[in-house]
Amino acid sequence: MAVFAAVSIVWSLLGYSLVFGGSVGGFIGDLSRVGLAGVGEAPNAEYAPKIPEVLFLAFQAAGADGLLLGNPSLLVSELIGIVAVAAYSFAGYYAILKAMGMVTRLRVTPEEESLDSVELGESLDE
């Protein structure tokens, strides 16, 4: 459930803009809708002229009308969204590990490598 929540947040804040924002070279969206900027009750005339854009955002987050439902043209958009979420997740994880590394050790020292000697006062070398 937490993963679904995290993916939904990343999709809403970043992925939607990269997939459905204004075109940059016809391949990827710009960052004009990052953080849901300009997304509201008004319909998006380009993608869904009859439903509120915020509803369209939620519908697309659920994977609606993709490759498996007969619309292969959205495959590239879906892959871009997947790559955006993966890159965002990696960057966040990396930043957290770097911050933790500044505060504490992430690995044991070579002297402490045999945890038996540290925790139990015993050694496997004997």
Overview of the structural elements:
This protein has one domain. Helix content is 49%, strand content 9%. The protein is built from 4 helices and 4 strands. It has helices at 2-20, 53-61, 75-103, 115-119, and strands spanning 23-24, 28-29, 43-44, 48-52. It has a two-stranded antiparallel sheet. The protein is elongated, with a radius of gyration of 22 Å.
Provide tags for this entry.
mainly alpha; two-stranded antiparallel ribbon; single chain; 126 residues
Low-confidence stretches: none
Major sheet summary line: 2 strands, antiparallel
Count up the helices.
4
Shape: elongated
Structural category is mainly alpha
State the domain count.
1
Strand order of the largest sheet: 1-2
Overall pLDDT confidence:
76
**How many β-strand runs?**
4
What's the helical proportion of residues? Answer: 40-55%
What's the assembly state of these chains?
Answer: single chain
Termini Cα gap: 48 Å
Radius of gyration based on Cα positions = 22 Å
| Relative strand content | 5-15%
Order of helices and strands: HEEEEHHH
Quick overview:
The protein has about 130 residues and is mainly α. It has helices at about 1-20, 55-60, 75-105, 115-120; strands spanning about 25, 30, 45, 50. It has one domain (about 1-120).
Task: Walk me through the topology.
Elements lengths: L1 H19 L2 E2 L3 E2 L13 E2 L3 E5 H9 L13 H29 L11 H5 L7
Antiparallel strand pairs: 1-2, 3-4
